């Protein structure tokens, strides 16, 4: 260690809004009733910090802190503890905090658990406990509602690091700190603290390893210790084996065989007896080892209870013992034919690189073999493992250019594995000005693709352009692919001129290496040639399309779509889906997206899965299939967040907002719009921003707020510097025209119809012709509107799509009703209602029902069955439904009923299914209608009873 940076320890909490909301609900409820909550997480994730935050935030009464006695116990009985707590809460509510309750001795934990169960809500005692993650299921804590702490998301970890260091860390240093901490806030601060100011600013190399034994032990609460040498070796062997398993569970048989090589069966003489307990030995062997408390044995798999403890065990072992364990694992794996993992463990049993000629057992020779096996597509291995192999080979490589090439290959594999957080530090390590242009170009290519998915797209554009120029001489086909990716970045940014400039014709191409993101080996020339042809056709067609020359765009883009019918590579299939969307062929886009998704999953390309889902979701939206779009986007959002692709996540949030905008979920629309715009504004995603803003406006229009909708949409579609994305704003024109007509802004509506007419004639949107006729009908005088509405409906029949056709039928029905043509209006409105219900457009269906009621027609299913449906619920489900209908959150319902949040979640799903509702808003309406019907029925019964009594008295 060369120094220490002054890092502030009192920093604000980052990324824990959900957990703090749960704690706040407990604190806010204490003046009225008691409750309890368990905070669970592994060391360093902030259990203690959250308890301190709660204690500082509680103002309604005193705060008590419970802790163990000198030897780990609380030394009180259950009655004593209850008496103490009830006495403390007699005058005012009291908050009781017990940090690290799992460290108490068994009698103390039992007393605490019984006290929790025996306290009633009337006692006004709030119990807030924290335990290690694996102890949350212990009998004494199992009945408590749990708030789980997960590692910080990348954005939260980055904000914490900037807060702790005042933002002085160099970008490359920052990326390495974030990757090494793996979302553990305490470890992140500890790693920053151990760096000198020069190291933090990037003026001096970082120490290796960055997360050393001292830092890990500090956060983990010390290195695990065990008096048994066998147990210590078992822990270290499981930790070492996890290096190739990404820290997850490992094969107990592998561990057993490695331990036999590490500790051969002793000869005659005294031997240590194993400690009784669960066994890690899955079969016959020289001895059965006990499983230490830090491990979990599940079937034939072993894992650490805490990933941080696993890292600490490995780091705190002596270098000699650590190398011996890796050597034993290498021998077992190589004997079993596991070439890549065996070589990796062999490399970890060695030291660093040496410049001299190497024998087969020396580091440089092992590095060459390791890189060769990692590059061999015939060797089955996930991208994550190949990334680890390339990175280790780079560490053992003395030659600078070759080291840079291997770090770049490692970053590429990390990106394919969905770990951009791992790719960035590897790219930083790959920087070498002496490396050949082709090596530097490939590194810029990987860096640009990384930023395109999870960073400012303007930066991605520049990196990809630089990659294209560096690759042009030695790898022109790769240069063309990098240039097309640069055009993708310009497209995402909404920069039309940059997109056209990037798509300018380039020199003829020849094939060399597969692109970043591809799965084939470098010598697969036929696949590379196929990919190069797709890149060329897509580039030519996309430029022609942006220049408005559909006659020149159709053929090359059609070739890209056609190749998707027989292609099996996910990146080519993604290009096929994108080309189909450009041409307006939504069925081909759906097929291409579905095939790309299947191919990405089959090949283990985790980073391509959310992109395939994005194209699928867009295709479903364009086809008017909003429920299917929502399904794909929900999965896409989960996978994008899991694989660190915030830009892709923003696009999925925009799709979810658009899908929710036709349903009765304004809060869902607002949540997705806010999240999408947050990323879009920071990363320059004009396309995602335009879609999100359109969703917010369409939600306004659906809820009968045309003035708000017209204001929002006017910024997107009217000419000016703030107009939306060049390829998206026209899609929002029909919504704007409808809102503008209702808001008496007829001239604004007419202004955009000329451009929209050109777009409809272009043929890239199957709905545009029908929408154009509808827009003209809205603006037409009465003697022309009727025919225009009919023409629009005829065009909808040709294009398909329930939602847009139902919107036209609704507007036509409204127009007919206002012209006193009730019979015709009834038919159109009924058709609209059926269409909206068919596609799940609840908010628009409500408009249709309102129009039908105005005609005196009572649409079916508008509340008459609500009391009967509520009768299907159990008493507990009915209580939960009523609380939710009153606006309570799941946490508030749990506290009110004295159950866990998990129980509320379970019952609420049953309630939604039984009542046939899809949102809390629908649930509130159903419960309200049932309560109103019950009141009406009760009043009627009272009147009948009064009449009977009066009649009886007269008789």
From TrEMBL:
One Pfam family here: GerE
SUPFAM superfamilies given in the database record: C-terminal effector domain of the bipartite response regulators, P-loop containing nucleoside triphosphate hydrolases, TPR-like
Disordered: region residues: 261-290, 504-527, 930-955
InterPro entries: P-loop_NTPase, Sig_transdc_resp-reg_C-effctor, TPR-like_helical_dom_sf, Tscrpt_reg_LuxR_C, WalR-like, WH-like_DNA-bd_sf
Name listed for the protein in its UniProt record: LuxR C-terminal-related transcriptional regulator
Bias type Basic and acidic residues, positions: 261-274, 931-947
PANTHER family in the record: TRANSCRIPTIONAL REGULATORY PROTEIN DESR, TWO-COMPONENT RESPONSE REGULATOR
Key words, A-Z: DNA-binding
Domain HTH luxR-type as annotated: residue spans: 866-931
Superkingdom classification of source: Bacteria
Sequence ranges of Pro residues compositional bias: 275-289
UniProt organism field: Streptomyces tendae
């Amino acid at each position: 260690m060369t120094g220490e940076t002054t890092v502030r320890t009192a920093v604000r909490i980052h990324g824990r809004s959900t957990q703090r909301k749960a704690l706040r609900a407990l604190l806010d409820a204490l003046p009225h009733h008691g409750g309890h909550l368990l905070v669970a997480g592994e060391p360093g994730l902030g259990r203690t910090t959250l308890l301190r935050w709660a204690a500082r935030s509680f103002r309604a009464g005193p705060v008590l802190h419970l802790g163990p006695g000198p030897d780990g116990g609380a030394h009180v009985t259950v009655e004593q503890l209850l008496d103490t707590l009830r006495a403390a809460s007699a005058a005012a509510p009291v908050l009781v905090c017990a940090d690290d309750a799992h460290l108490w001795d068994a009698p103390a934990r039992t007393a605490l658990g019984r006290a929790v169960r025996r306290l009633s809500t009337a006692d006004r005692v709030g119990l807030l406990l924290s335990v290690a993650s694996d102890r949350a299921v212990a009998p004494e804590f199992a009945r408590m509602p749990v708030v789980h702490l997960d590692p910080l998301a990348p954005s939260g970890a980055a904000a914490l690091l900037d807060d702790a260091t005042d933002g002085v860390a160099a970008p490359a240093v920052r990326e390495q700190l974030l990757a090494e901490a793996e979302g553990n806030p305490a470890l992140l601060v500890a790693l920053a603290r151990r760096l000198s100011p020069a190291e933090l600013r990037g003026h001096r190399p970082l120490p290796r390893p960055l997360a050393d034994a001292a830092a890990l032990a500090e956060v983990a609460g010390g290195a695990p210790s065990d008096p048994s040498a066998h147990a210590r070796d078992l822990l270290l062997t499981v930790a070492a084996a996890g290096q190739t398993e990404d820290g997850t569970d490992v094969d107990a048989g592998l561990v057993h065989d490695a331990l036999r090589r590490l500790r051969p069966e002793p000869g005659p003489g005294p031997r240590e007896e194993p400690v009784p307990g669960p066994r890690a030995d899955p079969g016959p062997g020289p001895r059965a080892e006990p499983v230490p408390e830090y491990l979990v044995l599940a079937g034939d798999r072993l894992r650490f209870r805490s990933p941080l403890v696993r890292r600490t065990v490995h780091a705190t072992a002596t270098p000699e013992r650590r190398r011996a364990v890796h050597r034993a694992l290498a021998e077992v794996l190589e004997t079993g034919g596991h070439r890549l993992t065996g070589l990796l463990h062999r490399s970890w049993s060695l030291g660093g690189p040496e410049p001299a000629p190497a024998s087969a057992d020396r580091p440089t020779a092992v590095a060459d073999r390791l890189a060769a096996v990692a590059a061999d597509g015939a060797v089955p291995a996930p991208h994550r493992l190949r990334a680890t192999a390339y990175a280790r080979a780079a560490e053992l490589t003395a030659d600078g250019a070759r080291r840079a090439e291997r770090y770049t290959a490692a970053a590429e594999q990390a990106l394919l594995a969905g770990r951009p957080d791992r790719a960035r530090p590897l790219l930083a390590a790959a920087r070498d000005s002496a490396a050949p242009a082709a090596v530097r170009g490939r590194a810029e290519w990987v860096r640009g693709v990384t930023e395109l998915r999870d960073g400012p797209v303007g930066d991605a554009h520049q990196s990809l352009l630089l990659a294209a120029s560096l690759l042009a001489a030695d790898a022109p086909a790769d240069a063309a692919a990098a240039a097309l990716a640069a055009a993708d970045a310009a497209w995402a940014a909404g920069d039309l001129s940059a997109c056209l400039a990037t798509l300018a014709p380039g020199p003829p191409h020849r094939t060399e290496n597969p692109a970043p993101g591809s799965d084939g080996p470098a010598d697969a020339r036929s696949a590379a040639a196929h990919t190069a042809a797709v890149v060329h056709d897509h580039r030519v067609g996309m430029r022609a399309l942006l220049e408005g020359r559909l006659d020149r765009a159709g053929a090359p883009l059609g070739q890209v779509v056609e190749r998707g019918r027989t292609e099996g590579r996910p990146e080519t299939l993604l290009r096929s889906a994108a080309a189909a969307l450009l041409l307006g062929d939504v069925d081909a886009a759906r097929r291409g997206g579905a095939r790309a998704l299947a191919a990405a999953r089959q090949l283990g390309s985790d980073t391509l899965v959310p992109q395939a889902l994005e194209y699928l979701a867009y295709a479903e939206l364009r086809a008017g299939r909003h429920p299917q779009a929502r399904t794909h986007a929900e999965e896409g959002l989960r996978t994008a967040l899991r694989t660190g692709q915030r830009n892709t996540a923003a696009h999925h949030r925009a799709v979810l907002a658009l899908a929710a905008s036709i349903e009765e979920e304004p809060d869902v629309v607002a949540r997705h719009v806010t999240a999408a715009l947050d990323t879009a504004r920071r990363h320059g995603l004009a396309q995602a921003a335009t879609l999100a803003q359109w969703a917010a406006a369409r939600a306004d229009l659906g809820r009968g707020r045309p003035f708000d909708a017209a204001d929002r949409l006017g910024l997107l579609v009217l000419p000016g510097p703030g107009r939306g994305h060049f390829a998206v704003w026209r899609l929002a024109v029909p919504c704007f025209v409808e809102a503008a007509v209702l808001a008496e802004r007829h001239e604004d509506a007419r202004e955009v119809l000329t451009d929209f007419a050109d777009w409809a004639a272009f043929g890239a949107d199957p709905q545009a012709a029908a929408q154009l006729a509808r827009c003209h009908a809205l603006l037409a005088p009465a003697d022309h509107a009727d025919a225009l509405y009919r023409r629009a409906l005829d065009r909808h029949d040709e294009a398909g799509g329930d939602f847009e056709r139902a919107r036209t039928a609704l507007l036509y029905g409204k127009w007919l009703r206002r012209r006193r043509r009730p019979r015709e209006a009834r038919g159109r409105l009924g058709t609209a209602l059926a269409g909206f219900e068919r596609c799940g457009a609840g908010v628009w269906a409500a408009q249709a029902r309102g129009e039908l009621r105005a005609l005196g027609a009572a649409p079916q299913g508008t509340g008459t069955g609500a009391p009967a449906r509520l009768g299907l619920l159990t008493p507990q489900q009915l209580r939960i439904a009523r609380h939710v209908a009153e606006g309570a959150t799941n946490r508030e319902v749990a506290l009110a009923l004295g159950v866990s949040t998990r129980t509320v979640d379970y019952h609420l799903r049953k309630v939604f299914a039984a009542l046939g509702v899809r949102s809390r808003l629908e649930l509130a309406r159903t419960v309200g209608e049932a309560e109103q019907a019950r009141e009406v029925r009760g009043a009627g019964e009272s009147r009948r009873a009064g009449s009977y009594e009066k009649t009886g008295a007269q008789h």
